[in-house]
Amino acid sequence: RMSEVNKQTAQKCAKIAAGAVVCVESEIRGDVTIGARTVVHPKARIIAEAGPIIIGEGNLIEEQALIINSYPENIMPDTEGVEPKVMTVGTNNVFEVGCVSQALKIGDNNVIESKADLGRNVILTSGCIVGACCQVNTCEAVPENTVIYGSNCIRRVQTEKPQPQTLQLDFLMKILPNYHHLKKTVKGSTTPVRN
Amino acid sequence: MASLLQPNRVVYLVCGEKKIRSPLSQLYFCRYCSELRSLECVSHEVDSHYCPSCLENMPSAEAKLKKNRCANCFDCPCCMHTLSTRATNIPAPLPDDPTKTAMKKAYYLACGFCRWTSRDVGMADKSVEIIYQEGQPDRVLVFFHVTQEKYGLGTRLQRQRSGAPISSLAGLSLKEGEDQKEINIEPAQALDEVEPLPEDCYTRPISLPEVTTLRQRLLQPDFQPAGASQLHPKHKHLLMKRSLRCRKCEHNLSKPEFNPTSIKFKIQLVAVSYIPEVRIMSIPNLRYMKESQVLLTLTNPVETITHVTLVACEEGDSDDINSTAKVIVPTKELVLAGKDAAAEYDELAEPQDFQDDPDVVAFRKSNKIGFFIKVIPQKEEDEDVTVSFKIRHDFRNLAAPIRPSEESAEAVPEAIWLTHHVELSLGPLAN
């Protein structure tokens, strides 16, 4: 698996920090950086097509979640002069099962619930919760602590940000290595995942 | 095609106080009057109250006292979802030794859908798991009570009138011994001087998250808060189980079980278990003024053999207002075998020998037959082709008392013949 990735240039392989738990069944393509204490479940997909993806610490990316930095619709992959844009994801975010995120900037402590769909031009600040099955493809920076819910994507502001999933992350970091092989970063000495 | 099986394709006519056309699955059959009944010609009575989230049963008197609301469950004032109780650990000083702190559990209400919490409105976390709403005076109820007394709707006797809509306030009767006194409500006075608007009314920026929607506001009619920080959770409304009663013979048609977790019925006199059901199986291309053959199925719900005759509607039939096509129904009597629940397991069963005419009966399968009718659309417009006919079948009333006859020891109830008017919607003309 890692040898296949080595075929590409050094820029295009995944850099997984020590302390991150990335299951081998997940699909990570392109230049992806994953921070410490982040858990990537099997069948999650992180695809850096049109530019690199940098994921911070303490994130929880569940099964069938898709984080993709793709080309905008009207631009062909071979067009010259297109700058690769970096997609950043902050700390303590939760990407629940089946969500799709193409947002270029995601802050901290956000929760993207199951089957939610974020467009490329949305910027999530911090403490935002995008409800299940909500599609947000506006061109805006969602204010802090906003909750988007309901079939009409109505919004309200909550008074406190969502709790970081530290308990869940600790549990998963203990249990997942018992059942799955983990991806480790290629360069440098491979530090064993702490149990 | 699944759309042919939609319930509103085949409707039966109910001759009650009003003529109602409804699919058989939504009708009831009074086997004492031997007539079809719809929801509009029966009286609805409340059987029991229960909370939809904790499924707790509540006797009617207690429900009335608690204003038809559950004591344990709450609704989110923001999205009306059910609130759940969450616990946090907070350090709190021990009662014995104020210098030491121990982790104590504090409970608050939270909504899983819109993420509203009781902390948003300033409700403090409680140390008891069940959070009771502080008593708030129910101004709405006082108003209703007053109007009722004024207009004399308070007595229970008025509710016995079958068929009259039962007002939910009819149960609020006065206690014995109290006089019905007239309370005068003063009409609202129109004033010249009104409170002036605040000065920064035009310049102050609106904070939209703080403004409540009309729905959120009107769900709390006594306070109708305009600000989201005043939206308090309300106790959950109870739902009720109802029983239906035929208005003519006062027998129960539908009586559910008392237990809220049970979906069964004590009495369930639904039409599909007594009346043969007509369903559409396949429709060819229908063309204006051209005869086509439509395949229908007829299912026998009872365990005895049923004989069914179809009769086309006569000219000038007052029930026949919707049909847009002429229909030619089979003239011979159709025989339906009884429903035998064990038939699929009984390998030695003799195949039924009914000698069906292949021009009329397409297939036969246990208690169901497929038969053809000929349809000639008469109108060229775009609307659905509708046909109607009468279906006449024999019905054995097992509920009626059996008169013992001298000849046979085993008395079989006499069969009576029932006729129903059926309308089928066959879809648009093919182009």
UniProtKB/TrEMBL annotation, chain A:
GO terms for cellular component: dynactin complex; kinetochore. InterPro entries: DCTN6, Trimer_LpxA-like_sf. SUPFAM superfamilies: Trimeric LpxA-like enzymes. The keyword Cytoplasm applies. It is found in: Chromosome, Centromere, Kinetochore; Cytoplasm, Cytoskeleton. The keyword Cytoplasm applies. Keywords: Cytoplasm, Cytoskeleton, Kinetochore. One of its GO terms (biological process) is mitotic spindle organization. One of its GO terms (molecular function) is dynein complex binding. Part of the dynactin complex that activates the molecular motor dynein for ultra-processive transport along microtubules. Belongs to the dynactin subunits 5/6 family. Dynactin subunit 6 subfamily. This is Dynactin subunit 6. It comes from Myripristis murdjan (pinecone soldierfish). The gene is DCTN6.
TrEMBL record, chain B:
It comes from the Eukaryota. The keyword Zinc does not apply. Keywords: Acetylation, Coiled coil, Cytoplasm, Cytoskeleton, Isopeptide bond, Phosphoprotein, Ubl conjugation. It is found in: Cytoplasm, Cell cortex; Cytoplasm, Cytoskeleton, Microtubule organizing center, Centrosome; Cytoplasm, Cytoskeleton, Stress fiber; Cytoplasm, Myofibril. Transmembrane segments: none annotated. InterPro entries: DCTN4. GO terms for cellular component: cell cortex; centrosome; dynactin complex; myofibril; stress fiber. Belongs to the dynactin subunit 4 family. PANTHER family: DYNACTIN P62 SUBUNIT (PTHR13034), DYNACTIN SUBUNIT 4 (PTHR13034:SF2). Subunit of dynactin, a multiprotein complex part of a tripartite complex with dynein and a adapter, such as BICDL1, BICD2 or HOOK3. The dynactin complex is built around ACTR1A/ACTB filament and consists of an actin-related filament composed of a shoulder domain, a pointed end and a barbed end. Its length is defined by its flexible shoulder domain. The soulder is composed of 2 DCTN1 subunits, 4 DCTN2 and 2 DCTN3. The 4 DCNT2 (via N-terminus) bind the ACTR1A filament and act as molecular rulers to determine the length. The pointed end is important for binding dynein-dynactin cargo adapters. This is Dynactin subunit 4. The lineage of its organism: Eukaryota, Metazoa, Chordata, Craniata, Vertebrata.
